[in-house]
Specification:
By secondary structure, the chain is of the alpha+beta class. The protein folds into three domains: 83 residues; 101 residues, Tyrosine recombinase, N-terminal domain (DNA polymerase, domain 1, Orthogonal Bundle); 198 residues, Orthogonal Bundle (hpI Integrase, Chain A). The strands form two sheets. Strands 1-2-3-4 form a four-stranded antiparallel β-sheet. The protein is elongated and about 80 Å long.
Length: 407
C-alpha cells in the first residue's frame, strides 16, 4: 500500500471534452486545485502546476488555458528540445557524476539535487527555454513553494542555487550569454543551539545516571554514549562524520607529550580538500577518552570507534544514536535551548566551537575554522556574534566605577 503523505493527490477529476491525460486534483498540503498532464512527445512524461484557484470552476478555466499553452510548448519543444531547462538539468547531472568519480563531490549532494529537480523544479521549468528562465519566473516559483509548503529560507535558497547551476550549464554551452539576476531569500542568522558549561555538566551527569541505572525497557550502552558525547565535544566532528570513523583513521600528534592529542583523518568529511581527505586535531581530553575507554571496547584496526556492533552505518546507527541522545536531553530537561531551538547531535559540535571561542576569547578564528573544517565567516556569523557578551574582554568594558558604588 502506498504511503499517504501531504503531497498525495486526491479528488482527481477529468475535464469533459479534453484528453483523459489532463486532470485536476487536490493534495492535503494545499487549499488550491492542481492540474496535471501527461503529454507524449513533450518535454517530460508528466507535468503539474498549482492553479492557485480554490473554486473548481475557476480551476477548470485555468486548466483549459494551461493545456493550450502546453500544446504550443510541445511543438516548440520538438524544435528546441536541446535548449530547454530539462536538457541542461540532464547535463548538470552528467557534470556532477564526473565530479563524484573524481572525488570532488559527495554523492548525497547529487541525490539531493536530483530529488529537488524531479519533484519541483522540472515540473515548473522543464519545458521552458533557458532564455525564458528569468527573475520573475523564478521569483513566482519560490513564492509558490513558500505559500504551498512553507519551506524555510535556507531550503528556498538551495532551490535558487540549483536553478543557477542548471543555467550555468546553458551558459557554458553558449545558449545564454550570462546567468540572469535571480531572487534572493533573506534569513536571520540565529545562534546555533549549544550547551553552555552548566548545561554540558548537567548533560554528562544525566548520562552517568543512565549509565549506572539503565532503564529496564531500553537496551543501550550509556557508558559508551557518555564517551561518545565527550569525544564529540573535544573533536569538533559533525554528526555525519563519526559514523565511519575507525581506529585506522587515528594518529597520535605527539606520543611523548604529557597530554597527547589525536589527529583524525575524517573519512567522510562534509567539506573535502582537493586531495579528498580532511585531517583535524582533537583536544587532549578526546585522546584520554580514546586510550582509556574506546580502545578497550574496540581495538581492531577496522573497528569503528563507536557502536561497532551496529553494522548499518549509513542510516540505522545515526537514527539509533540520535534517538538515545534525545532521551538523554529530555531526561536532563535540556530538549531545547533558551531560544526554543531543539538540541540535537549537532549541538555537540556547536558546543565544541563555542567552548573553544570562549576559551581563546575569539583571538584565532582562522586556526579554529581550519581545524573544524569550516570557515571564519561561519564562525563569525553563527557563533561569535552571540558569544561576544560572554568574552572576558567585552565584559570588562561594561564595568564602571559608578555601577559598583550604587550596587
Amino acid at each position: 500500500m502506498a504511503r499517504t503523505t501531504r503531497m498525495n493527490p486526491y479528488d482527481v477529476r477529468e475535464i469533459p471534452g479534453y484528453p483523459r491525460a489532463l486532470k485536476l486534483f487536490r493534495i492535503p498540503a494545499s487549499k488550491y486545485w492542481y492540474v496535471r498532464l501527461y503529454m507524449k512527445g513533450g518535454p517530460s512524461s508528466g507535468i503539474k502546476k498549482s492553479t492557485r484557484c480554490e473554486k473548481y470552476t475557476e480551476a477548470v478555466a485555468f486548466a483549459k488555458d494551461w493545456y493550450e499553452e502546453r500544446l504550443l510548448e510541445r511543438r516548440q519543444f520538438r524544435v528546441k528540445g536541446r535548449e530547454n531547462f530539462a536538457y541542461f538539468a540532464d547535463k548538470l547531472a552528467e557534470s556532477q557524476a564526473r565530479l563524484i568519480r573524481r572525488g570532488q563531490l559527495a554523492p548525497k549532494l547529487k541525490a539531493d539535487d536530483s530529488a529537488k529537480l524531479k519533484t519541483d523544479i522540472l515540473p515548473a521549468f522543464g519545458d521552458t527555454h533557458v532564455k525564458a528562465v528569468d527573475y520573475n519566473l523564478v521569483d513566482n516559483f519560490i513564492d509558490e513553494l513558500k505559500s504551498e509548503r512553507d519551506l524555510s529560507a535556507s531550503t528556498l535558497k538551495k532551490y535558487i542555487v540549483l536553478i543557477r547551476k542548471v543555467l550555468k550549464e546553458a551558459e557554458r554551452d553558449g545558449v545564454i550569454s550570462s546567468i540572469p539576476s535571480l531572487p534572493t531569500v533573506k534569513s536571520a542568522n540565529h545562534p546555533r543551539p549549544w550547551f553552555n558549561f552548566a548545561e554540558y555538566r548537567q548533560l554528562l551527569a544525566t548520562c552517568r545516571t543512565l549509565r549506572d541505572n539503565p532503564p529496564a525497557d531500553l537496551k543501550f550502552d550509556f557508558g559508551e554514549m557518555y564517551d561518545f558525547i565527550v569525544f564529540m565535544v573535544h573533536s569538533f566532528l559533525r554528526p555525519s562524520e563519526w559514523k565511519y570513523l575507525q581506529n585506522r583513521h587515528i594518529q597520535v600528534l605527539d606520543e611523548k607529550a604529557k597530554a597527547p592529542q589525536l589527529i583524525l583523518s575524517v573519512p567522510n568529511p562534509k567539506v573535502r580538500s582537493s586531495k579528498g581527505f580532511s585531517d583535524s586535531v582533537t583536544t587532549d581530553v578526546a585522546a584520554d577518552i580514546y586510550f582509556k575507554n574506546i580502545l578497550r571496547r574496540h581495538d581492531g584496526k577496522n573497528d569503528f570507534l563507536f557502536f561497532n556492533d551496529l553494522r548499518d552505518r549509513e542510516s540505522y546507527v545515526m537514527d539509533r544514536v540520535s534517538r538515545i541522545f534525545r532521551i538523554i536531553c529530555d531526561t536532563a530537561d535540556l530538549s531545547e535551548d533558551r531560544y526554543g531551538q531543539k538540541h540535537t547531535l549537532y549541538s555537540l559540535r556547536h558546543s565544541a566551537l563555542c567552548f573553544q571561542i570562549i576559551k581563546t576569547q575569539g583571538t584565532d578564528l582562522f586556526a579554529l575554522a581550519k581545524n573544524a573544517r569550516t570557515s571564519v565567516d561561519m564562525l563569525e556569523k553563527f557563533y561569535l556574534s552571540h558569544l561576544t557578551p560572554q568574552l572576558p574582554e567585552f565584559a570588562k568594558q561594561l564595568q564602571t566605577s559608578w555601577a559598583k558604588e550604587i550596587a
